[in-house]
Amino acid sequence: MSEKIKILLVDDDEDDFIITQDIINDIPGNPYHLDWTASFTEALTLIQEQKHQVYLVDYRLGAHDGLELIAMAIQSGSLAPFILLTGQSNRETDEKAMHIGASDYLVKGTFTPFDLERSVRYSLEHAKNLAEIQKLNTELEQRVMVRTQELAEAVIKLEETNKSLFEAQQEIKKALQKEKELNELKSRFVTIASHEFRTPLSTVLSSASLIGKYKLTEDDEKRQKHVNRIKSAVSNLTGILNDFLSLSRIEEGKIYNVPTSFALEPFAAGIVEEMQGYLKVGQQIHFQHQGQPDQVTLDKQLLKNILLNLLSNASKYSAEGKNIYLTTTITPETIILRVQDEGIGIPEADQTHLFTPFFRAQNATNYEGTGLGLNIVKRYVDIMQGTLTYESILQVGTTFTVQFGRNTTR
């Protein structure tokens, strides 16, 4: 028989403990053991002892509240999931709970054994995902330590060689710069991954929990709302993972330019059609092709990724009802692709950093994203031996132009 999962209930009302125990007893198979404390101080002590896998915390705790307890526990290093118990369901409480680090919340007097079991199960899975991110952080730090040791050994070897002092200094500077970039990349990756994963995961968990409460036919609209939230969050996670995987493959040198011959106009028209499901309400992509013949020799997959990324950005940073323009042009010497939007534009002070990994412009912080998209596009264009330029005016729009030579086939 497997050991039961230990749950600690922090609630200053013994009646709530008895009710919660009865609900747990009604869970099929009852894989849980419930302990209880009414003391805020004792709860902090028990949490530090790490004897429980999950914590149920009441919103009202005498002179304190549950949000304060959860915040203090997480700040002291607790990694176990916290589920807030509240007397009423409202968006403000939900957002506060998720902001301080709670995995979920349940409304007292309304949740069933099924609701509690699902909330505990989802919260444990959420905690497991966060633990994996922290494990990745530790592994990256170990890699940095190894690289630092390798750097130290390289310095010793350089000192033992007969190279000139100037050559030795240059090698050391390059190694130090590479080490610094690796460390900065690690820190930014962990910070952004932790933040970007946490938001959609919290959305999935809260919406999944709320769906179970809408059981009547007249609740279909509310159910569908949360289903759409889950779909959007999963789509966001997929985009984040694809960005990280693309960057990783580029860094490892696993992206190659493999040109093939194909007709450019139907290829671009197909991408426009594929984008239709991702546009905001009222947005339209106006596609125009200029020049003949239509046949080009380029890496088809890399070109598709470039256009999808630029068109997605054009839609994301433009309001509903705005136009997006895609123009493909073939001349005897060049192949030109141009994406123009009527969006928010890029501040002039940010334009020099536009292709830097993880960079977000000042006016783009309220939009979802990792800051990797344009960096990946630029590196794809470089791999294909092309050029990427842009023009942008605040509140007017941005135009990106990709250009390839007709004889660039390697």
TrEMBL record:
<protein>
    <recommendedName>
        <fullName>histidine kinase</fullName>
        <ecNumber>2.7.13.3</ecNumber>
    </recommendedName>
</protein>
<dbReference type="InterPro" id="IPR003661">
    <property type="entry name" value="HisK_dim/P_dom"/>
</dbReference>
<keyword id="KW-0902">Two-component regulatory system</keyword>
<dbReference type="InterPro" id="IPR004358">
    <property type="entry name" value="Sig_transdc_His_kin-like_C"/>
</dbReference>
<dbReference type="InterPro" id="IPR001789">
    <property type="entry name" value="Sig_transdc_resp-reg_receiver"/>
</dbReference>
<dbReference type="InterPro" id="IPR003594">
    <property type="entry name" value="HATPase_dom"/>
</dbReference>
<dbReference type="Pfam" id="PF00512">
    <property type="entry name" value="HisKA"/>
</dbReference>
<dbReference type="GO" id="GO:0000155">
    <property type="term" value="F:phosphorelay sensor kinase activity"/>
</dbReference>
<dbReference type="InterPro" id="IPR036890">
    <property type="entry name" value="HATPase_C_sf"/>
</dbReference>
<feature type="modified residue" description="4-aspartylphosphate">
    <location>
        <position position="58"/>
    </location>
</feature>
<dbReference type="InterPro" id="IPR036097">
    <property type="entry name" value="HisK_dim/P_sf"/>
</dbReference>
<dbReference type="Pfam" id="PF00072">
    <property type="entry name" value="Response_reg"/>
</dbReference>
<dbReference type="InterPro" id="IPR050736">
    <property type="entry name" value="Sensor_HK_Regulatory"/>
</dbReference>
<feature type="coiled-coil region">
    <location>
        <begin position="151"/>
        <end position="188"/>
    </location>
</feature>
<dbReference type="Pfam" id="PF02518">
    <property type="entry name" value="HATPase_c"/>
</dbReference>
<dbReference type="InterPro" id="IPR011006">
    <property type="entry name" value="CheY-like_superfamily"/>
</dbReference>
<keyword id="KW-0597">Phosphoprotein</keyword>
<keyword id="KW-0808">Transferase</keyword>
<keyword id="KW-0418">Kinase</keyword>
<feature type="domain" description="Response regulatory">
    <location>
        <begin position="6"/>
        <end position="123"/>
    </location>
</feature>
<feature type="domain" description="Histidine kinase">
    <location>
        <begin position="192"/>
        <end position="408"/>
    </location>
</feature>
<keyword id="KW-0175">Coiled coil</keyword>
<dbReference type="InterPro" id="IPR005467">
    <property type="entry name" value="His_kinase_dom"/>
</dbReference>
